[in-house]
Amino acid sequence: MKRTALYSIAIVLFATALSQTSKGAPPFLPTKSAGANQGEAVQWQTNLHSAHKIATTENKPMLVVFGADWCHFCKKLEKETLTSPEISKYVNDSFVAVHLDADTDKKAAEILNVTGLPCTIVLSPKADLLGRIDGYYTPGPFYQKLAEAKQKHQVVQRTSITK
């Protein structure tokens, strides 16, 4: 079975699991971005099914960030990287951002093979794996990895248009 087909199956299972378990923002998700005074905060979705609909409608890749309340580096990623005005603007402009708690959304974490935290996964609206960021990164390297995933999305789009 092709990798795309596996991820398509995964997204369906993932969305089903989340629609049954997600009850709001994960406890580690800050309600107000530390960088909000200098720019906009990331516009987080907490339900993968809703995020997938938005991603499909807007033809944007999904940025899925897994964290946990107990995870030091998850909180560090939140405070130092995801609240950076440049990162939050880029994420809002280029992705549909989804924030999930790995402890609460265990099935989703299992399907996407999340073995360590924080873990950031970028999926196309058709569930193609565009990128994976394991661990904590400062804003510069994190931005570079997001830009690489965005570029892959553009390649996937061009390829699907020509077929």
UniProtKB/TrEMBL annotation:
Superkingdom of origin: Bacteria
Native species: Thalassoglobus neptunius
Family annotation (InterPro entries): AGR/TXD, Thioredoxin-like_fold, Thioredoxin-like_sf, Thioredoxin_domain
Keywords attached to this entry: Signal
Signal peptide, first to last residue: 1-24
Residue ranges occupied by any Thioredoxin domain in the UniProt entry: 19-155
PROSITE patterns cross-referenced by the UniProt entry: THIOREDOXIN_2
Name of the protein: Thiol:disulfide interchange protein
